[in-house]
Amino acid sequence: MAQLTEFRREIDSIHEKAIRAQREAGHAKYLETALSHSKQQAKAAKSLAHKPLEAEIDKLSLDKDISGNLVNVNATNVVELLLSNDPPIDSIGLYVEDCIRSARGEYVASLGNATDGFQSDILTFEQVLVILKQLKKACKSVDCGLGVLYQRVTEDEKEAFVKIIIRRLPTSAELFQEVRLAVCGNVDAGKSTLLGILSRGGLDDGRGKMRVNLFRHKHEIESGRTSSVGLEIMGFDHEGNEVQSATQKHGWDEICSRSSKIVSFIDLAGHERYLKTTIFGMTGTQPDYATLIVGANAGLIGMSKEHLAISLALDVPVFICVTKIDMAPPNVLEQTLKQLTKILKSPGCRKTPVFIRSKEEAAELSSTFVRDRVAPIFLISSVTGSGIPHLKTFLNVIPPASAGPDLIEKPLEFMINDVYSVPYAGTVVSGIVNTGSIRLNDTVMVGPDSLGNFITTSVKSMQRKRSNVNIAEAGQSVSLALKRVRRTAVRKGQVVIAKTEPPPKASWRFVGNILILYHSTTIKPSYQAMAHIGSIRQTVKVVGLNNDNNLLRTGDRASVTFEFVKNPEYIKEGMQLLFREGRTKGLGVIAQVVD
Asked: Which of 236, 390, 433, 536 is most deeply buried (CB count within 10 A of its CB)?
């Protein structure tokens, strides 16, 4: 894994600038800056369980005139304006809207001795109530909602600190935010059970009750093991509350209609036999984050280390969930945590493990753990429910990796990761919009086929999370129903792109800068392996090696020319490459596409 880290440093220049900035920022002071203020306030504070904050706000009566005159509102004077006798609600609403826009859909802020978008000195509990009452009116004026994540108030109520989240109201399935989360780990670690609790509600009975509803095949139910890529969702409304019914399960379309934020879980297989499927799930679905599920009774064994290495190789931020803490003896749990801490601190990971034991820590770390190279660790029991509320708070606040305006303005590029034949709808493809945007009835091109050609078609219907939409933009996952296209003419790994003249070219060969993580003997020309490039999953053959010995061993780095064995593919420079064959594993980046 140390070789993996060294190689990733060398290819950083080819990756996006955002990755480099993310790493450079990682050498800043880690968690202390983010949590120091909260810890200082907590010394003489306690939670007002007997005084729910929302109830206190509703009781508060404000006999103040609300001015409609627009004034200049900024981070330094917004709190003062909210406390004034004549608060400019419209102007404050516009300021809130700018904050949400700059934060790409949701804005997390602090009230009380804060230094962010609502700067202020120490506030009393009564002042915080007044601010929240007026701020809710300002949010309502711009179709936004405000929720309280946590609060700390001293016994005399002279000092108060509140963490809030502001989101847009759910108006359509086109606008909700989406966070894609890959769930990986060794077999029998409790991945599907945990997802069943998060997506369906309730607790497990210790015998797999919650995992059954997530399985897609009969043999999965019989064996209790996931063998395919499963998908589940969890919704949060504009106030940060979980969208879930205590009596019945909502459909995806209903959850999306009531949610401002959707967490999409990608349930991956843990058995070594299904590693090919797991790697495809990590590369094809383009997760924003990955959570590694570790059984407290077993530790980091089997495929857990493999999945962790894959996540690091793909630059996917990782956090850890240690499950089954209710059945693990204390000495076994302590040994598991020591092993996990040691691996996360190793040169191959270079992460700082932090155990999450409260909602406050979960809310603070959710937006900073990537920048500060922190690995949050949750201790969870799916039977007793211990640690589940902390994990839900973390998922509620974790920022979505929305695409920037520069990607949306580029030409359409949609990579297919699954194909269906739906009655009365025809051929349906699902995937991620990498760049650009796509609208209903747009004329597009699909390909390449076995000869490298693209076919012209149009989009007759679109859905996001089973809800009909008219437009999808870069960064969103969507399903498209294509007009007059046979199911056999479309496959995983193809792309849907904007119609161009002349049509784009598919490539048989490409040059990749690669690192061999493991190989038992030597790699020479004509060697074949399974390559994963985005949603492309195809055998490639080594046709050229750019080194003196004309062979590769474990730990070697080289520029290698590959050739697809079955079909040409639509690839571009800078795409990440993973290849494997048996226990042989390598990774790299495409440096050149050969026409």
From this structure: 236
Asked if the structure places residue 33 within a domain, the reply is no
Backbone angles phi, psi at 191, to 5 degrees: -65, -55
Complete DSSP assignment for 263-294? EEEEE---SGGGHHHHHHHHHHS--SEEEEEE
What CATH code is carried by the domain that includes residue 383? 3.40.50.300
pTM: 0.84
Cis ω before 399 (30° cut-off from 0): no
Q: Of 366, 397, 428, which residue is a domain's last?
A: 397
Q: Give the tens place of pLDDT for each residue, 220-268.
A: 555 556 666 778 889 999 888 888 754 556 778 888 888 899 999 998 8
Q: Is the per-residue pLDDT at 36 higher than 70?
A: no
Q: How far apart are CA 367 and CA 116, in angstroms?
A: 14
Do 475 and 557 sit in the same domain of this protein? no
C-alpha angle with apex 402: 401 to 405, nearest 5 degrees?
140
Name the 3-class secondary structure at 534.
Answer: coil
Residue 44 included in any domain: no
pLDDT over 90 (residue 406): no
Tell me how far CA of residue 404 lies from CA of 210, 400, 476, in angstroms: 37, 12, 12
Q: Is residue 361 within 8 Å of residue 387, measured between CB atoms?
A: no
| Residue type at position 388 | I
207 and 145 belong to one structural domain: no
**296 and 229 both lie in a single domain:** yes
CA-to-CA dists, residue 423 to 420, 428, 477, angstroms: 10, 10, 22
Say if residue 197 is in the same domain as residue 328.
yes
Tell me if 323 sits within 8 A of 352, measured CB to CB. no
Q: Which domain holds residue 451?
A: 405-498
User: Is the distance from CB of 542 to CB of 523 less than 8 angstroms?
Assistant: yes
Tallying the residues shown for the chain, one arrives at: 595
Residue with tokens 């509600």: 201
Query: Would residue 442 count as lying in a domain?
Result: yes
Rg (CA), the chain: 25
């077999």: which residue's tokens?
187
* Cβ atoms of 307 and 313 closer than 8 Å: no
Can you spell out the DSSP letters for 327-357? TS-HHHHHHHHHHHHHHHHSTTT--EEEEE-
Q: Are residues 158 and 206 in the same domain?
A: no
CATH of residue 162: 3.30.110
Cα–Cα distance for residue pair 260/397, rounded to 1 Å: 12
- Structural domain ending residue among the three candidates 378, 397, 416: 397
> Which region, left, alpha or beta, applies to residue 464 given φ > 0 means left and ψ of -120 to 50 means alpha?
beta
Question: What is the pLDDT, as a whole number, of residue 196?
Answer: 84
Residue 103's SS3 state is coil
Is there a domain that residue 1 lies in? no
